Amino acid sequence: MSMPVTDNINSFNVYNVSNHYTLAEDRSEILTWLSPLEPRIRHQDLRTRRADNVGEWLLEIDEFKRWCDGAQREGPDHAILFCCGGPGVGKTYLR
Amino acid sequence: MVGLTCSDTSSLVVDKLCDMAGQRNIAVSCFYVDFAAREEQTPTNILGSLLKQIVGGLEKVPDEISRTFQDYKKVIGGRGLRVGEIVKMLQTVTSLKPTFICVDALDECVERHRPEVLDSLRQILGESPNTRIFLTGRRHIRGELETHLSGKAVVLCIKPNSDDIVGYVRMRLSKDTSLRANDSGLEDEIIKSFTENIPET
Fold first, then answer.
1. Which ipTM value was assigned to this complex?
2. Residue B53 lies in a domain
3. I need a labelling partner for B106 at 20 to 30 A (CA). Which of A32, B74, B120, B122 fits?
């Protein structure tokens, strides 16, 4: 009587494990299918090269805080923040 | 590159949001547009990347997405998504929790692709009011933003302030092996000449 029960448990386990593997493979395959690009690499590069504390003031100003904290409260009028730089901001300056 | 470039601003904001994500249940997704990579940075890939990062943060891939993947896999050796399909999926996943989407250097996006990217962002916001979008770019694309985002963007003009410049110059000098480490007089002189010349833009 005990044998078939054990068999059942085993086969159930095997089924579960293989199913789990399929999901994990699918997941990474799905992510690559959504886009082959990896923006996190560029982010990591910028993060490493950025000087400490540069631009921190931006995170403290009202416009930014309202945009950042207001996800639940402020409604769609504060949904988009556009930071624009003129020619004075960027590579050509101070080279 | 000095002081606060658009990309520095974006990476700073993305880092801040990632820190927040450690404490609050939010999703963060970013994309850095680069003119040099314009061939591969199509609207499909830009929006697909934004979607991928959000889906990657979920415990389970939403059924709508995995079902489409399984269906598309069976034909022509794997069919890709169209922009409209990606936007629909983005609308679904951004509705699950507050989501922050950052797109850097929009002006570097090929001009004929920009309207499609901006329209897609507007459509996502329309369905998902808890989404927040952060964009950077040169001033000349402001008009396009107003047209395609229905004038909803709060505009902030950035320029390097003197603290940013001093911080940057000190960092570069500290890495300059040809400069004598204790020559602080020279360092001060260099910083002074830079800060006196910050343009009033």
1. 0.79
2. yes
3. A32
